[in-house]
Write a structure and sequence with these properties.
With 474 residues, the protein is of the alpha+beta class. It has two domains: 3-206, Chloramphenicol acetyltransferase-like domain (Chloramphenicol Acetyltransferase); 223-398 and 414-473, Nonribosomal peptide synthetase, condensation domain (Chloramphenicol Acetyltransferase). The chain contains twelve helices and 16 strands. The strands form four sheets. It has a seven-stranded mixed beta sheet, sandwiched between helices. The protein has a four-stranded mixed beta sheet with strand order 10-16-15-13. The chain has a three-stranded antiparallel beta sheet with strand order 3-6-5. A hairpin with a 4-residue loop joins strand 8 and strand 9. Helix 3 packs across helix 5 (173-191), helix 8 (268-280) packs across helix 12 and helix 9 crosses helix 12. The longest helix is centred in the C-terminal third of the chain and has 24 residues, at 441-464. It is globular and about 65 Å long. The two termini are 29 Å apart.
Length: 474
């Protein structure tokens, strides 16, 4: 099973820790890079502003995302040095660093990729996994530093573990999986003297320019903005919120330590049966996810208007399909639940809402809120937190079948979390459900109840086939 969780859940085998960092000449050259006319994406901008506001919290406010996997052969240190340098030069998100200027204006600086060079540093034998985890998190610098990422291996002579820890600023869920595949291919290419085909990729900078230009043309009269505003107004003029008490003050903006839980939701046979029920009643797996969560919230709280944000992958050009960067947009999914609702009656409507939401992928909610700043019907302002539900079918990614064989894992730090974030990741052999939430007693209690109800509903559907699952009977 693919590992997923916080850094605390990563337990690498002992070995010799070797980490790669930019050379001093490289760092100096990159930090001298001038400001670039293309700013960050809307999501990056708000992420950086939030981190800046929490800069004095004493904890890392931004999210550090790590992949780790095993390589069953001796390490070629020189080949790995060339691999990591090639990786950072290949994906232009790593050429950028950002500064927060007066008025919270976020400026981008872009380096010449030829100035990017890495060198290995040997930290000796480490037998304590706590020490490895601490090293990885300390050596990936702050989000406002250029090198808010780190690469390394734990060398055991006949095999080694690779890790790549990258701030969320430069990656996303798909990007983490792509990083694993890309590092494997680049390393194989170095070992073989250039015999492994490496497909070209497009840049994240061009993506940001495209997003910014499109959103700059929008007005409150634009049809997609009208759709966003209608949804927000229908839900009280506010973005979504978790329906149960989390023990966090509404609108809290300070650092709130996060907690995490990951459970297996289905084995693949169960996932296929769940998917078949969804298809039999006009939906797909994704629609089934939203229908099940909507019924869960109705059962627990009586909320009959399920409203949530979900990230969609915005890699749209052929060259972006293999690109590393933050290529997502938050889109709204709204599902009304009737008192006599069943899963089979709801899944088709939930699927239709999920499909319709994707039509808003180019429209950033942050831009919508900018445009609606003077609208008295809209209560939410920039800087909000909102629950998120993410579904990724990892099976569709190139190389996904190898993740389990190479002991692949995706891990993150305990960043600030004042809301509840839910991931459902479907791997070839298992579908996992993960939740990140505030680390408060009330949140632990609420999430445990929520998770128990949701997993029971999903498994009942998978086990009973086309049986109607009535919310009143959960």
């Amino acid at each position: 099973m693919v590992g997923f969780g916080f850094f605390d859940d990563w337990h690498p085998q002992p070995g010799r820790l070797i980490a790669w960092a930019p050379t001093s000449q490289s760092r100096a050259a990159v930090l001298a890079a001038p400001e670039h006319p293309v700013g960050p994406s809307y999501q990056q901008r708000e992420y950086l502003r939030a981190a800046y506001r929490q800069r004095d919290s004493g904890s890392r406010a931004s999210r550090l995302c790590m992949i780790a996997f095993d390589f069953p052969s001796p390490l070629d240190r020189d080949a790995m040095t060339r691999t990591i340098t090639a990786f950072a030069r290949r994906h232009d998100t790593f050429w950028s660093w950002f500064s927060c200027e007066p008025g919270e204006r976020i400026a981008r600086h872009v380096a010449d990729p030829a100035d990017i060079d890495f060198e290995p540093r040997d930290y000796g034998e480490i037998t304590d996994s706590d020490a490895v985890r601490d090293h990885v998190q300390r050596h990936a610098r702050d989000v406002f530093d250029w090198d808010c990422f780190g690469f390394g291996v734990i060398d055991r002579g006949d095999s080694f573990t690779v890790y790549a820890a990258v701030d969320h600023l430069h990656t996303d869920g798909v990007g983490q999986a792509l990083s694993c595949v890309d590092l494997l291919l680049l390393y194989g290419n170095e070992l073989s003297g250039g015999q492994v085909p490496i497909a070209p990729v497009d840049g994240h900078l061009a993506y940001c320019a495209r997003e910014l230009n499109y959103n700059a043309e929008l007005t409150t009269e634009s049809a997609p903005v009208q759709r966003w505003l209608e949804l927000l107004i229908r839900h009280g003029g506010a973005v979504p919120s978790f329906p149960m008490d989390l023990g966090v003050a509404p609108g809290a903006s300070g650092f709130t330590r996060g907690a995490q839980i990951t459970v297996p939701l289905f084995d693949e046979a169960e996932a296929l049966r769940f998917e078949q029920v969804c298809q039999d009643f006009g939906g797909k797996f994704l629609g089934g996810v939203f229908a099940a969560i909507a019924l869960t919230e109705y059962e627990l709280t009586g909320r009959d208007k399920y409203f949530v944000f979900t990230p969609v992958n915005t890699r749209s050009t052929p060259g972006e399909q293999g690109a590393i960067g933050w290529y997502t947009s938050l889109v709204p999914v709204a599902v009304a639940v009737r008192p006599d609702e069943t899963f089979t009656s709801l899944v088709g409507r939930a699927q239709a809402q999920a499909d319709a939401a994707k039509e808003l992928a180019q429209v950033c909610v942050h831009r919508v809120l900018e445009l609606a700043a003077d609208d008295p019907r809209i209560r939410t302002r920039l800087g909000f937190s909102a629950p998120m539900v993410s579904y990724v079918d990892v099976r569709r990614m190139a190389g996904a079948e190898m993740f389990d064989r190479i002991n692949g894992g995706l891990y993150g730090n305990r960043a600030s979390s004042s809301e509840v974030y839910l991931w459902i990741n479907r791997f070839p052999d298992v579908t996992q459900l993960s939740m990140v939430f505030p680390d408060t007693p009330r949140a632990h209690e609420a999430v445990a109840h929520y998770l128990s109800t949701l997993t029971k509903l999903c498994r009942d559907i998978a086990l009973t086939g086309t049986e109607r699952v009535d919310a009143a009977l959960l």
